[in-house]
Design a protein that fits this description.
single chain, 223 residues, alpha/beta, 9-stranded mixed beta sheet
Length: 223
């Protein structure tokens, strides 16, 4: 059995949603009881994704942005460049970690990252994700198969938010959406690489991974 404090982190850069989703499914299907947990960090070109039981009526006008019906939980959301997406591929059964606990810790990692910039993030009952005042800054949707997780959480950093007006984000009409760049002074805004490290430190602390045992695999991709 692998060390439960070990995590392999794959920074995938900018990649289309569909092949990354299929790669997550393949990883989940092929992993064994001894496969180390992984975390994939990615940005996607513009795409709307609809959850397994999502209602297409929440998409007002997709325009030239593709819509992908996926197998995560939740309703519709938007991904685009300037949004960091974190996909935890974890063996929850091996870690004795419940789904609600994983959701809570993913949210808390975003909240802690916001707090690093003096921003108060919060949860909402019955509406997974993280909010700043009345605006959503992070959306969450997971899939659990055979006690193992994939999909994850998206964190709006510095992106074009206008496509969110073409949908009911996460199934909520007129839900405001925000991003980190709109909430911090320009001189305190940090590049994506540093933000990844900040979020990762909080994630590892909450989930019990040892940052000193993280294996960084910046060019790895499971085809």
């Amino acid at each position: 059995m692998p060390d439960l404090q070990t995590l392999q982190v794959c920074d995938l850069g900018l990649r289309d949603y569909l092949p990354v989703w299929h790669a997550m499914q393949k990883f989940n299907q092929q992993r064994t009881d001894t496969t180390p947990d992984e975390l994939w960090i990615v940005e996607h070109p513009p795409v709307f994704t609809l959850g397994l039981n999502g209602d297409p009526a929440h998409i007002h006008a997709a325009g030239n942005i593709p819509v992908i019906n996926t197998d995560r939980g939740g309703q519709v959301t938007y991904h685009g460049p300037g949004q960091l997406v974190f996909y935890p591929l974890l063996d929850l059964a091996r870690r004795k970690l419940g789904v609600k606990q994983l959701v809570s810790q993913l949210e808390q990692s975003i909240i802690d990252c916001l707090q690093d910039y003096g921003i108060g993030g919060e949860r909402r009952d019955g509406a997974p994700g993280v909010y700043v005042a009345a605006a959503k800054i992070a959306a969450l949707g997971l899939r659990i198969r055979h006690g193992r997780s994939y999909h994850g959480v998206s964190f709006n950093i510095d992106m074009d938010l206008s496509p969110f007006s073409q949908i009911n984000p996460c199934g909520y009409e007129n839900l405001a959406v925000t991003q980190l760049a709109a909430l911090v002074p320009p001189d305190t805004f940090v590049p994506g690489a540093q933000l990844k490290q900040q979020w990762l430190a909080h994630f590892c602390r909450h989930l019990g991974y040892n940052p000193h045992t993280i294996t960084l695999l910046p060019n790895r991709f499971h085809e």
